[in-house]
Specification:
Strand content of chain B: under 5%
Number of helices of chain B: 3
Structural class of chain B: mainly alpha
Helix content of chain B: 40-55%
Helix content of chain A: over 70%
Distance between the termini of chain A: 55 Å
Radius of gyration of chain A: 18 Å
Order of helices and strands of chain A: HHHHHHHH
Order of helices and strands of chain B: HHH
Oligomer: heterodimer
Number of helices of chain A: 8
Shape of chain A: elongated
Structural class of chain A: mainly alpha
Number of strands of chain B: 0
Largest interface: A-B, 50 and 36 residues
Largest sheet of chain B: none
Chain lengths: ~180, ~55
């Protein structure tokens, strides 16, 4: 969203806000899916976050990171009223299968399903940081802003998440090999 | 030695220092969800939002 020089937002500003929010819908759905791990609940979460963001649009500061602002609203809703949605143990099987088929010729194809399964076993606060940084491509700074902790905490959670997910996958691989 | 140009998805995750198959898999999953068609009820919601004032849901 472009910075404006006027104090009061104009209709054009709000139209820009709405356009920016519409462009973000795919990313918001993906982030929500990683949080609650259920496609239908993720879409409900995304729509609720959009309604909250729209109602609070006058509080957004033009020129700041709109994507991080929207992700924070969605995350706060998930950990607040929407926490009853809880995480499910795996993503939509059809999506996982489609992803595997699409990536079957790539070097990391064998890891997609394993990684998805392992993500469901990580503590929530580690999984969300890994999802934000590795999945959504957020910077440490933006992830810290979204989660509401310091950058040091983000880095330590990320390191623990990386170690834990590798351990889970390697453990599963060894178990299959035995 | 020429530098290989990074694809967009790798370029946007500059925080990650080296190729990691687990993080690449997470990017694939995220990008796969992003590329799904957006359900029609989102369009209905966006149309509804355009009729509300700040502070209204």
């Amino acid at each position: 969203m472009e910075a404006t020089t006027t104090d009061a937002p104009t209709d054009d500003d709000y139209e820009q806000f709405r356009s920016d929010m519409v462009r973000l819908i795919p990313s918001l759905r993906a982030f929500a899916r990683g949080l609650c791990r259920n496609p239908d609940l993720a879409d409900d979460l995304t729509q609720e976050a959009m309604m909250r963001a729209w109602a609070s649009r006058h509080t957004f500061t033009p020129g700041t990171n709109f994507r991080a602002w929207m992700f924070r609203i969605l995350r706060n809703h998930f950990y607040g009223a929407a926490k009853k949605l809880r995480r499910e143990t795996s993503l939509d099987p059809e999506v996982a299968e489609r992803t595997l088929v699409q990536e079957a010729t790539q070097e990391h194809a064998l890891h997609v399903n394993d990684v998805d399964t392992a993500m469901a076993r990580l503590p929530e606060h580690q999984a969300e940081v890994l999802w934000l940084i590795a999945g959504a491509g957020m910077s440490y700074e933006d992830a810290a802003d979204i989660v509401g902790v310091g950058i040091g905490t983000i880095k330590s959670r990320l390191n623990r998440a990386r170690a834990a997910i590798k351990s889970i996958i390697e453990g599963e691989t060894e178990r299959v090999a035995v | 030695m020429m530098k290989k140009k990074l694809p967009p998805t790798a370029a946007r995750t500059a925080e990650i220092p080296a190729f990691d198959p687990i993080e690449a898999a997470l990017r694939e999953i995220f990008d796969g969800i992003e590329s799904e068609p957006v359900p029609d009820d989102f369009a209905d919601l966006v149309a509804k939002l355009g009729k509300t004032r700040p502070g209204e849901a």
